[in-house]
Amino acid sequence: MARWKRVSSSFRRVGMAWWGPVALGAFALLRFYNLTPGGHNDVPWTATFVAAIALALAVRRRLSPTEVMALQVLAIALVADYLNWKGGGGLRDLHLYLIAGANFMDHTAVYATTAIHSYPTNGFEYLPFLYAPPTLPFFGLLSELPRTLVEVLWVAGSAAAVLVSLRAFGLTWRWALLALVWTPVAQGLFVGNVVIPSLLLLAAATRLGSILVLGPLIKPQNGVIALWLVRERAWRSLGAGLLALLLLVVATLPLAGVDLWRQWLDGLAVYQQSQQYVPSLNGVGLGRYLPMWAFVVVAAFTVLAALAARGREGLARLGLASAVASPSLFLHGFVFAVPSFLRLRAEWLWLVVGFVCIGPEPGPQLALGIGVAAWFVKGMARNVEEERAAGGLGRHPLHPLGYGVEPWPAAED
C-alpha cells in the first residue's frame, strides 16, 4: 500500500508539472484547426513542433515540461508568422504614415472627417491616420525620400530598437534575437508599426524617466506608463519631460498649425465611430468584447492596481496596464507588456507568450488576464530564491531572465 501511495504521488507530481504543455498544446490545436486563415493549420503546427522536439532530443536525452512549452511556442510563432506574411500587406502601417506625411507636405487633408463602414478597397495603408500633429513633419520628411530607402532604414531601425530594448529588460543576445520571431514582434516589424521602435521609451525609462512623457504622441495609451513618474514622485523627470513635450509642440507649431490639433481630435472621435461599424478596428483589445462601461471599469482597476507597486515592478505593471486600457490593441501592442510577462514563472510565461501569438480571441485576452492575476496570486510570479532551492544552480527552469527576477537588472529602484 505504501509503495502504491508513493507511485500515485509521483504520478500526481508529474501530472501537475505537465499541465502547461497539455493546456498550450490543446489550445494551439484548437486555434489552428479551423479558426485561422485557410483552416487546418494544425497540421503544419504539429509537424513543426514534432520536428523541434526531435532535434532537441537529438541533443538532450530528456526535456522538461518548460522546455517542451518553449518548443511549442516556437512552433506556434513560426506558423502564425507565416500566416501573417502569407496574408500580405507588408509595411502597410509604414506606408500609411508616409501617405499622411505626403498629404501634410501637399497641404491636403491628413485626418479623417467621416467614419468608415468597411476597410478601404485600395489597401490598409489608406486607413485613418491617428498620430498627433508633431509627428507629421517627421513623416513628411520621410515621404520625400526614396521609398525603398525608407523601408530598409525603418525595418532595420525597428529591429535594432527591439534588440536594444530587450537587452535593457535583461535578455541575453541569444534570447533577444530569438524574440524577433515572437509573433507580436514579427508582426510589428512586418507591418512597420511605430509601436516597435517606440519600445525604446519603456526600455530607457529607468535611466531617463522623462522620456516617458513623449509616449502619448505616438500612442495615447502610453500616457498610462508616464504615470510611473507620478507614482515615483519623480517630479524633476516629469517636469523635464513636460518641458521637452512643450518645446516639441512649439517647434512644430509653425509647420503643423493650430487647426491641425483640432482636426486630430476630431479624427480620433471619428475613428471611435468607425470602430462601431468595423469592430475589427479594435484589434484584440478588451474594448471589442466588453460594453464601454465594463471596459472603463476594467481599465481603471488595472491602472490603479499597477500604481500600487513601485520601482521596476510598478513600471512593468504599467506597461501591461497600458495594453489593457488600450481601446485599439493589436498583437504588436503586447511588446509593452513584455517586462510584466518576464516577471512570471517560466511555466506561466511560456503559456502567456504562446497565447498571444494566436488571435483574435481568446488567447490575447487570456494573456492579459494571466498577467494581471500574477500581481495578486502568489506562486505565479518569480521568486529566484525559491527556484534555486528547488532546482539548484544547474537546473533552473527555462526562463529568458535566467536567475534575474526583475526586468531592467542594471537599474536601481
Structural class label: mainly alpha
Average the pLDDT over all residues and give the rounded result: 88
The total strand number stands at 0
| Order of SSEs | HHHHHHHHHHHHHHHHHHH
Count helical runs. Answer: 19
Q: Rounded to an integer, what's the Rg over CA atoms?
A: 22 Å
Report on the biggest sheet. Answer: none
- Apparent shape: globular
Q: Bin the helical content.
A: 55-70%
Low-pLDDT sequence parts? 1-15
Task: Walk me through this protein's architecture.
The protein is built from 19 helices and no strands. Helices cover 61% and strands 0% of the residues. The protein starts with a helix and ends in a 22-residue tail after the last helix. It is mostly helical and 413 residues long. Helix 2 runs antiparallel to helix 3 and helix 3 packs across helix 4.
Give the gist of this structure.
Helices cover 61% and strands 0% of the residues. With 413 residues, the chain is an all-alpha fold.
Please give the structural blueprint.
Layout: H1 2-17, H2 19-34, H3 42-59, H4 65-86, H5 92-105, H6 136-143, H7 147-169, H8 173-178, H9 183-191, H10 199-203, H11 223-231, H12 235-256, H13 259-277, H14 292-307, H15 311-324, H16 338-342, H17 346-356, H18 363-373, H19 384-391
Helix pairs in contact: 2-3, 2-4, 2-17, 3-4, 4-9, 4-17, 5-6, 11-15, 14-15, 17-18
